[in-house]
Amino acid sequence: MSCFAFAVLCPIRQDAAYFGLFGVLFAAAVGVSTGNNWCRALAKLLLPPELYRHLRHSGVLSDTLLPNGWEWNLFVNRLTAAVVVVLLMQLGINFAPTAESIRVTLEWRDLRYTVPVGRRRQRTSKTILEGLSAVLPPGRLLAIMGPTGCGKSSLVNALAGRLPAGGSLEGEVLVNGLPRGRGFKSITAYVMQDDVLFPNLTVFETMEFAARMRLPPSVSAAEKAARVEAVINELGLAKCRDTYIGSAFVRGVSGGERKRVNVGVELLSNPQLLLLDEPTSGLDAFQAQNVMESLQNLAQGGRSVVATIHQPRSSIYSLFDMLLVLSEGRDMYYGPAGEAVAWFESCGFACPAHYNPADFFADIVAIDHRSPAAEEASKARIALLVDRFNQRQQQQREAEQAAAVPAEDQAAMEKINDRPSFPNPLPTEFSLLLRRAWKQQSRDRLPQVITLVQTLVLGFVLAALFSDIPTTLAGAQDELGVLFMSCMFNTMASIFASLNTFPAEAGIIQRERISKAYHVSPYYVARFLCDLPLRVAQSLLFGVIVYWIVGLKGTAAAFFIFCALTILLALASQALGVAVSAACPSEKVAFAVAPGITVILMLFAGFLVTYESIPAWLRWICYLSHLYYAFMGLTINNFRGSSEWSCNTSATPGCAGASGDAILTRLGFEGKGVWEPFVGLACLALGYNLAGYAVLRFSKQKFIPLTASTAKKRA
Ligand SMILES: Nc1ncnc2c1ncn2[C@@H]1O[C@H](COP(=O)(O)OP(=O)(O)OP(=O)(O)O)[C@@H](O)[C@H]1O
C-alpha cells in the first residue's frame, strides 16, 4: 500500500516522492524490528515532531503496535496510515498548528558592553555600551541613530545575542518580560551589515530556498511561494528576480538589490521581531526609502522593528515611531521620534526651521575634534544632554513599570520557547540543501573547467614522461614513481579543491546555523554528494590517460582496481580538506596548514621511506595516512604476480632481477591482500569525514553570554 502511494505520488511532487520512499524504508525498518520500543524510537528520530505527536495521539504509533503475536494486518494498516499521513502532510494538508503571530515587547535594562584593548601589560578595557535601558512596545519601528562609532551595531548585536566572544556583556534583555529563550531565534530576524549570499543562485532561488528552509511544514507550499512573491514585490526585486546574486567574479545584482535580498531572506520567515544593522547602507535614496517603508509596513502589521541608520533623509525620518540617539555608547534620547525635536529644544538645542532633524541630532551628539576648544565644548554639551536624559529616565521608570507586558503575550512567548528549534524535519533539510548545493556547484563552471584541464595536462605530461617503460628494475622503479605520483595528484587536487570552495560558503552556513535553519549533518552529506561527481570524473580521467599510455598492468580488473583506489583516495582527501578548512580560523591559515599535513602524510606513504625503514615508534602515522593505503593498494595491484623484472646487466653486472612479489616484499607489503588497502582507505575516508563533520559541528561562532549587571548581582 505504501509502495503504491509512493508510485502514485512520485510524479505529483518531489517531496512526496521523497517521503514516500522514506515511508517504504520505514516499513522495512519496522518489519525487521523485533519490538515496538525500537520502532517508536526510530519514528521519533525520523518523523517531523508534529507528525510524531499526531501519530502517538491517534494511536498509529501506540504501545500496542507489533504486540507479542505480530498482528500483521493491524501493523500493515497502521503503517499505511502513517505513510499516507506523511504524504498528505507533504502535499499541504497540515496537522501541526500554524505558527501564530505574537506581539513582542522588547526590553533591555542597564546594558553594559566592555571589550579588552591593548596588549599584555598595557591591556585595559573599553566601554562601548554604558548602561543602556529602554522598552520597545510591539508594533513600533525604532531607529537607532548616532555618530559613527557610537555603538549602534554593538547594541543591535547585543539585543540579538550576537556580540562576538572577547568582551563582557552585562544587563538584561527581556522578550515579553522573559529572558531570551529557545524560541527567541525563531521569532527574530537579524539582518547583518554584510550581505552573505550564494553567488550562483538567482534572487528567486535564494528567496525560495529561504522560504522552504525556514518555514515549517505546516505552511503549505502554495503559501510559501506566495510569500516569496510578496517579499520580492515588496522589496522591488521583481526586475532582477531571475538575475544571479553574483560576486567579484560573476556579474550579478547591484549592491542595493543585494542588500534588499539579504533583508528579504530574513523577512520570509515572518519574524515578529526584526533587528537590522544598517539596512539602507549602500542604497540610493529611493531604494532606502522603499526598504524603510517596507519596515514601517511590517511594524504597522504588529511586528517590532529595530534598525540602525546613518543620517536618514527627512522623509525616512518621518517613518520612525521611536528614536534612540546614542553618543559614545550612552543614551542621549529614547522616546517617540515625533517628540525628539521638542525634547532637544527643552534642553536648549532648538532645531532650526526646515532642517532635517536627523542631521541636527547627528551634529549635536557628535564630538568635534577639529580643535581642543571645540572638543571641550562638544563634550560639555553631550554631558549636559546625558544628564538631562537620565533625569527624564528616572521620572519615566515608574510609568514604564505600570505598563507591564500583557499576560497573554508572556504566555505566548513561553509557548514558543517550548517549541522545537528547527522548523523542518531532517529529510526536508537534506533535500533542500542538496538541491541548493547542486545548483550552486554545477553553475560554478570555472573551477570545474580548471580541474578537468589541469587533469588532462598533468595526465598527459606524466604519461609522456613515463611512456614505454622497460621491464627492467629501473622500469619497476619508474612504475612505482607513476603510482606514487597518481596518489599525490589525486590527493593534492582534492584537498585544495575543498580548501578553495568550502571557506566561500562558511559565512553563509554560520549565519544559517545561528538562525537554526538546519542541522549540520544534512548540510555535510549534501555537500559531500555534490562534490562526488567531480572527484570521480577527475580520478577516472586521470586514470584513463595515465594507466594505458604508461602501460601499467594490462588487465581490465587491474585498471578498475586502480580507478576505484584513486577515487577512494580523492574522496578521503576531499574530507581532509574540509576538516582542515573548518578547523582553521581563516582561508589563509588553512592554505598554510594543508601543505604541511600533506607532506607528513606523503612521507609516511611507504614510497620515499619504506615501512620497514620508518622508526617503529613513528609507524602508527602510516595508518593515519590515506596515501599509505592508496600507494600500498596501487602497488599490490600492479606488481602482485607480475613476471620477472630483469636487470640491465651491462650497467649492473651480477644483478639477478626481481619478481613483482619480491618488489612488494622490499616495500614491506608482502602477504597483504588488495582488500586491505581498500578497507584502510574506506575507514580513513569515513574517519576524515567524521572529523570534518565534528569540526564543523563544534566550530560554531561563539557569542558573549549576557550576565546580570553588577548592581543586580549585589542586590
Ligand atoms: N571587539 C572590539 N574591540 C575593540 N573595539 C571595539 C570592538 N567592537 C567595537 N569596538 C569599538 O566600539 C565602538 C562602537 O562600535 P560599533 O560598531 O557598535 O559602532 P557603530 O555606531 O555601529 O559605528 P558605524 O556607524 O560606523 O557602523 C567603535 O569605536 C568600535 O571601534
The helix tally amounts to: 26
**In CATH, what is the class of the largest domain?**
Alpha Beta
CATH fold label of the largest domain: Rossmann fold
Rounded average pLDDT: 81
CATH architecture of the largest domain: 3-Layer(aba) Sandwich
**Strand pairing plus helix content: what structural class?**
alpha/beta
Please estimate the helix content: 55-70%
Q: What ligand species are in this complex?
A: adenosine-5'-triphosphate
Radius of gyration, rounded? 32 Å
Amino- and carboxy-terminal Cα gap = 66 Å
Strand order of the largest sheet: 6-7-8-3-9-10
- Structural domain count: 3
Strand content: 5-15%
- CATH homologous superfamily classification of the largest domain: P-loop containing nucleotide triphosphate hydrolases
Tell me about the largest β-sheet.
6 strands, mixed
Low-confidence stretches: 1-22, 27-36, 63-70, 88-99
Shape: elongated
- The count of DSSP E runs of length 2 or more, i.e. the number of strands, is 11
Descriptors for this entry?
binds adenosine-5'-triphosphate; disordered N terminus; alpha/beta; 3 domains; 715 residues; five-stranded mixed sheet; single chain; Rossmann fold; 26 helices
Overview in brief:
One of its GO terms (molecular function) is ATP hydrolysis activity. By secondary structure, the protein is α/β, with parallel strands linked by helices.
Write up what this structure looks like:
This protein is α/β, with parallel strands linked by helices and 715 residues long. It has 26 helices and 11 strands. Helix 1 packs antiparallel against helix 2 (14-32) and helix 23 runs antiparallel to helix 24. Residues 115, 117, 126, 128, 146, 148-154, 166-167, 310 line the site of adenosine-5'-triphosphate (ATP). GO terms for molecular function: ABC-type transporter activity; ATP binding; ATP hydrolysis activity.
